[in-house]
Amino acid sequence: MKKILIVDDEPHNRILLQEILEDLEDDSLQLFYAADGAEAWSVVQAEKPGLVFMDVMLPDMDGLEICGRIKARPGFEDTFIVMLTAQSQSSDITKAYGVSDGYITKPFKTQVIKDVVYRVFGCA
User: Fold this and answer.
1) For residues 55 and 6, what is the distance between their CA atoms, to the nearest angstrom?
2) From CA 19, how far away is CA 25, in angstroms rounded?
3) What is the DSSP letter of 57?
4) Which of 34, 88, 108, 116 is the most exposed place for a label (fewest CB within 10 A)?
5) Is the peptide bond before 107 cis (omega within 30 degrees of 0)?
6) Reported pTM
């Protein structure tokens, strides 16, 4: 099973990503959702997703902190994390790449999201 976690505090962003990923028509994709950092951390530990789309700005703990926790945890080094954010300053991008595997600015293009899935899982 190909597990993907979508972490965003904005419901419309979670729904948009869900629609993009469901459009891939891959029955082996299993989607999980989190609206804040604590919920994301719980889902990561319970489900061990192969791919995480992570918003940077979250209400309780930011996405950068969660990424750092995931990458530091033994057995989770291969979890592929892509930061999704409206922040586009070079310092923000540098911070994101310091703890994640990719960075996509909002608004994002459907094909860019699909390309990440193809790259992580080989095909969808």
Assistant:
1) 8
2) 11
3) -
4) 88
5) yes
6) 0.91
